[in-house]
Structures are given as structure tokens and as C-alpha cells.
Write a structure and sequence with these properties.
alpha/beta, Alpha-Beta Plaits, four-stranded antiparallel sheet, 26% helix, binds S-adenosylmethionine
Length: 318
Amino acid sequence: MRSSAQFQPAQPRHATMPYREVTIPADDARAEALSDALMELDALSVSVEDREAGTEAEQALFGEPGLPAPRSAWQHSLVHALFSTEAQADAALLALLGTGLLNDLAGVQQTDVPEQDWVRLTQSQFQPVCIEGRLWIVPSWHSAPENAPLVIQLDPGLAFGTGTHPTTQLCLGWLVQQSPWNGRDLLDYGCGSGILAIAAGLLKARSVSAVDIDPDAVRASQANAQANGVELAHCCHVDMLPEQRFDVVLANILAAPLKLLAPMLSARVKPAGRLVLSGILDRQAEELIQVYAPYANLHVHAEQDGWVCLAGTTYARP
Ligand SMILES: C[S@@+](CC[C@H](N)C(=O)[O-])C[C@H]1O[C@@H](n2cnc3c(N)ncnc32)[C@H](O)[C@@H]1O
């Protein structure tokens, strides 16, 4: 399977001709600039893969959720660009020759790529997810099982949180296990798609608020909550959240920001309220527990694929 550092989706095309793929070897210093140049030259999509993939020299290149990969390409990369026609592929290579991005055509390959149902291919990667046998996350091109007790309808979009990532599933699992949430006010801090806030709403929370630093995430959360019939008390940029404490605060961010946010996040929880943190790698758990020790008695609630979810109760403060 090709592991892409960067993938820009193909635009829809109605002809049944094959696409033309150009493959150019590049070092990590050039791969990103080359990808950008190929997009400028009308490539339908560009992806980058490790030239050593499948060999002993293959390198892992991934970032934690919400963060970009530590580097944009591998030391020895292959840049693949897809064009509508062979003529467009030839023209792009010609335009690149002598620009410093491509000195000659040594190692450059061209192949035909058969027409596929790209929409179906993309959709097949997002299947319904079931949490604790009760809560289903279902993309719009699937139907929920007939007897599914709770359903969130959610399509992949600009914001993180389709329900497929372990860090999200860990939080959802906690929410379902501890439900119902009648009489409790919940805050989803770093809401992404709003998936946790929506789940809390469906699990009968008295009120649910959702905040993020990313305006796209705020917009996505508003739209997704509305589509699922969940009313959000607040859905806004973090800086706009009114002074208020919550019975439960969930934050699926990452270990580094969670450390910095410890005093502020803890202060958002009522005394003896619940704090749930996710986006933490197994090896980071102990440090996070210590950082939050002045405010809450966090413990590892659950683990999935090397990620942990910390949960605990905040201390009563004077
Ligand atoms: C891993 S996603 C989690 C999304 C969703 N809550 C879920 O569980 O799938 C992390 C989200 O936190 C947001 N974020 C990152 N740093 C933040 C910060 N300091 N304050 C608020 N939100 C932050 C990101 O923009 C992103 O939408």
C-alpha cells in the first residue's frame, strides 16, 4: 500500500479514458516544492511515498493526531502526480525541466492509471464504527443498523474526528460507559468535528459546549451538531467561551498542549467533577498524571493501539 505524506484529492472527471501518472524520484529537500509545482501545473492529485517502501530501509514518517508529520517527505521519496492526459503530463515535465526541481528525466516514469470510481473508493475507507455496542458513528452513504440505540451521522470533513481514530474512540467509550449524563454540563475542549459533544448530547447531557482554536473545527461542529439534532450551549473559539465550570471536561488534544493547559483545563471543571484527557501516547501517560496531580487524581482509564485515555476527578479547592 502506498503511504502518502501528502495527498490532494482528484477532481471529478467524467471521461472513461485512463489517467496518466508521472513518478519522479526526489530527495526530501525537493519533494514538497516539486509537489507544489506539479499542482500548479494542473496535476489532479499529488502524493509522496518512501522510495524505500517495502525494503529494510523503509522509514516511518508520521505525526500525532492534529499535528503535521515531522517532515514533509522521506529522504528518498517518489513524487506521484496524476494528470488527465498524457499530453498534460508531458507538458508538465517539460515545464519543470531546468527549473532546479527537475534537472533531467533520469528515473522519471509515466504509466496509465485505469479509470476508477474514486468516490466509491474513498467512501469504502469509512465504515460505520460501533462504540460499546451502543453508539454508532455512520457516514451518510451507509445506513445505521436497524436496532442501533444511538447513531451519530458524520462524514469526514476538514476537522478531525470521524470516530475511526483510537483517541476519539477512547473518549467515546468513556462517555458511553459512564452515561446517561442527565443533569450534567459537559465541555468538549478541542472539539474538531464535534463528535464528542454530539455523543454527549445524545447521551442526555443537560448542556454541551464545544470549543476549538481552529475556525474550521468550530464551523464543522456547529454543522454536525445541527445535522444530528444536538443543541450546543456554546460552540466557539476557545477565547470566546464564557466563564463557567463544567461537570465534565473532555480534551482529546495531544500530550504537549495538554501539559501547558493543565491549570486552565482543570479550572474549567467543577470541584469533584470529571476530567478526561486523550491524544496521549502510552509512554506519556505517567508524566501527564504527574502534571495534573495538583488538580485531579487522573488514572489510565483505557488503552488502544498505543494511545491512552486518562480520566479522574478534580479536587475540591477553597
Ligand atoms: C485530535 S483532534 C480531536 C477532535 C475530536 N474532539 C475528537 O475527539 O475526535 C484535536 C482538536 O483540538 C484542537 N486543538 C489543538 N490545540 C488546541 C488548544 N490549545 N485549544 C483548543 N483546541 C485545540 C485542534 O484544532 C483539533 O480540532
